[in-house]
Amino acid sequence: MKKQHLPQKTCPVCLRPFSWRKKWEKHWEEVKYCSERCRRNK
To answer: Which tens digits make up the pLDDT trace of 12-27?
Structure first.
């Protein structure tokens, strides 16, 4: 799959869009934050 066709979400902390990653494959629905830093600063 090309990068431009990957699903995207917006991080509620930094308000930046982030794309699907292989490590999130099994739990993409639960992913809310783009990084650990944003998750800690919620």
So the answer is: 999 999 999 999 999 9
